[in-house]
């Protein structure tokens, strides 16, 4: 206030012009910096709120990208086709169509299809599945192991891995060779751990040579518990009528196109006889994931911003109460109500902007740090960062209006009588 007291009065200058922009900035700066400890506590709420918003949006975008990437690696590249069903008058569920035996070859011509394979459950009746002949008195108790039939391209399609041996090919399928591939858990239950000595398992009294053991099947984990036959073998030995399911691995983004064209490729005359499970487009998945994450965390950020705004309002109001004498002196020296209100509004806006800038910087640092620790690629819209920093000033403006009006309403006589 010393620079105001020392300023000489100039005749003819209107009272409202005695305190210009320079005076306003000087007084606001003095008011903000007078109590550094209080300033830090005041902007803490705004810093946390703005940082929460930036971290929320940044991690939401980053996590959505990572989740979408994982989705693309598995589910977004998988299409499943099955015969559609209808209910007869007797209540039976009947298939509308049958998958053709050459279904993988038919859909393999479609753009976006990388591999395809068929799968079916084999009904072996009451036949026992053992690793020794059934007439051996030392045989272990019979096991309940599912038997499945598959085409040669299924393993690649479901992203399976051969632990030992090999997977059967089109030649085994065409000849109906009596061979099987075991899932890792089924092999353990049957006591088969290696295939270099051509071990066999028995379905009933019929021997089938084990040529491989598979593991790490990402899309059909039930294969790990099963005995898998070639389709041709299941047709010859167990009268398999048709494949039950067609698995298709596609390129990323080709789900909708393949989903529409696959039924036509399988049966041009009645494509409605098949149901297709195709992944949605990547943009829909990413938007859905990001929206869900944003909804949760933006609510937390809004609460923190509200707390920050209330903190600025409380501290500004407290400042008004503590500086009643100063306000009265300024009014006595010619400051108008507008000058007093503007001073406290500017103080609140500056405090809010400081909190916004620090909070936005802190939020960016958190997003980058978390992404680095998780080995993710950080994704953050810089427009969000800039808007978040400016939002601090808006919060300060809204929080400072009421205290500024209270300060402007103080009469100089009443303030000076109260003293400071």
> What is the helix content?
40-55%
Overall pLDDT score: 80
Number of helical segments with 4 or more residues? 14
Q: Give the termini distance in whole angstroms.
A: 13 Å
Q: Which keywords apply here?
A:
disordered N terminus; two-stranded antiparallel sheet; 420 residues; alpha+beta; single chain; eleven-stranded mixed sheet
Could you describe the 3D structure shown?
With 420 residues, the chain is of the alpha+beta class. The protein has helices spanning 2-5, 21-33, 36-73, 103-107, 154-157, 170-175, 184-190, 231-238, 255-266, 282-322, 324-332, 337-374, 382-408, 412-418; strands at 78-83, 85-87, 93-95, 113-121, 129-130, 147-150, 161-165, 179-183, 200-203, 206-215, 227-230, 245-250, 274-277. Strand 2 and strand 3 (93-95) form a beta hairpin. Residues 1-17 have low confidence and may be disordered.
Strand and helix map with partners:
Layout: H1 2-5, H2 21-33, H3 36-73, E1 78-83, E2 85-87, E3 93-95, H4 103-107, E4 113-121, E5 129-130, E6 147-150, H5 154-157, E7 161-165, H6 170-175, E8 179-183, H7 184-190, E9 200-203, E10 206-215, E11 227-230, H8 231-238, E12 245-250, H9 255-266, E13 274-277, H10 282-322, H11 324-332, H12 337-374, H13 382-408, H14 412-418
Parallel strand pairs: 6-11, 8-10
Antiparallel strand pairs: 1-12, 1-13, 2-3, 4-6, 4-12, 5-9, 7-10, 8-11, 9-10
Short account of what is shown:
52% of the residues lie in helices and 15% in strands.
